[in-house]
Amino acid sequence: MSDKNQFRIEKDSLGEVKVPTDAWYGAQTARAVINFPISGRRPDADFVKAHVLIKRAAAVANNQPHWLDDTLTKAIVAACDQILAGDYLDQFVVDRFQAGAGTSHNMNSNEVVANLANVALGGTKGVYTPINPNDHVNMGQSTNDTIPTALRLTALMKLPRLLAAVNNMADEYARIGVEEVDTVKSGRTHLQDAVPTTLGREFSAYAWTLRRAARNIEACRDGLCEVGLGGSAAGTGLNTSPDYANRVAVEVARLMGEKIRPADDLAAQMQSTHDIQRLSSTIRDLTLEITRISNDMRLLCSGPRTGIGEIQLPPVQPGSSIMPGKVNPVMFEMLNQVCFQVLGQDAAIGYMTQAGQLELNVMMPAMGSALFDQMEWLTNAINAATEFNLKGMKIDRERCKEFLHTSCALATLLNTSIGYMKAGEVAKESEKSGRPVRDLVAEQGLMSADAFDALVLKAARDGRID
């Protein structure tokens, strides 16, 4: 096939550019593909849709004061609707690491929408009439206000999926907490034997912690709804139609089903990425808790003979290429690995948050990519761990009982009846002889074994022995 048949020639402000014949994008996008062969990762699909949604809303807002006529508006809206329905997503081809602020992605959107609209009106790809990418699709907009807004809208799109995953995991821990409310076990502090608790209390605490983290993430929603659309290039509203900031926010709110509103200071929403950083920070807080809980799950299922082994996770795959029958806690190992990656993305977002200068933070393309990865990876990992491990988990109640009655820490229950020093002597004798505290208590006439068992249950469930 000849070069002529593979490419069409387009022009931009720098001159002629070869664009693949079948491409719906144009010259500026083609330049960016050549300039930024960095990660091999194309833009996040939700981000593509969020940015195109802004283009759709802008066309409607510009039509209201008759800056954009009805024919062009309808064609732009129809083109955007095709993309929002999931078509032509493969035409968004600029690498996630690109020129600052996201100008290349903005033009990718402008060119694809313009070409789709023009062809629908009887035109030809690459011939930007009657609709021009800059003059019509980008009317009243700038990269500087559309990209940060698209970051916010993308986060709002992903938020329900992340929260659902967290709450689903919390529900499973809560279910186990209710079912095992009477499963008494040895507590552990400093990784040493401690006073008795119940497995139900242990798992209910995990559920409570996850739900609190989910509430903190949900609290970020309001800040994400405050957008800088209408600020144009530097927050001044240059080249925008009358009352554009309010009108476009109303239309975005209608399309998103969110309480989108113009920021009180449009310039600030270009300078500052505070709300993105805040969301990332609350996701980091969740991730730290999930890391801790995952570590606990791996400890509790360790063994099965030489570890703790109080819980048994479902075997989802062989655990070793050399040790037959070995099963590993692979889902929670995976979850830990994802958590560590998420923490790294949060650190990157933190550095990029402070890297803005004057009227604009140009780090937004990579910042958005890091945030989207956080949300997608964590959502998928939590769902997988919940579905394939947590839901099928079994409790070894006999193992819990065995550890409970061999724990020297049970002597703590004697503090109020015989005093700390005497109880300490019982604990030392238990540790030295290997005999359970309950047997020593009965032998010394302090109380019967059955009464001691009842005392242990009451202490584990109620935290009181009086």
| Tally of individual helices | 19
Number of strands: 8
CATH class of the largest domain: Mainly Alpha
Going across the biggest sheet, name each strand in turn. Answer: 1-2
What structural class is derived from the secondary structure elements? Answer: mainly alpha
Tell me the major beta sheet.
2 strands, antiparallel
The CATH superfamily of the largest domain is identified as Fumarase/aspartase (Central domain)
Q: What is the average per-residue confidence, as pLDDT, rounded to a whole number?
A: 93
For this structure, the CATH topology of the largest domain is Fumarase C, Chain A, domain 2
**What's the SSE pattern?**
HEEHHHHHHEEHHEHEHHEHHEHHHHH
Q: Which radius of gyration do the C-alpha atoms yield?
A: 30 Å
Low-confidence stretches: none
Principal-axis shape equals: elongated
Distance between the termini: 90 Å
Q: Please indicate the percent range of residues in DSSP E strands (runs of 2 or more).
A: 5-15%
Proportion of helical residues: 55-70%
- How many domains make up the coordinates? 3
Concise description?
It is built from 19 helices and eight strands.
Descriptive overview:
This protein has 19 helices and eight strands. Helices cover about 60% and strands about 5% of the residues. The strands form four sheets. The protein has a two-stranded antiparallel ribbon with strand order 1-2. A two-stranded antiparallel sheet has the order 3-4. With about 475 residues, the chain is mostly helical. Helix 12 runs parallel beside helix 14.
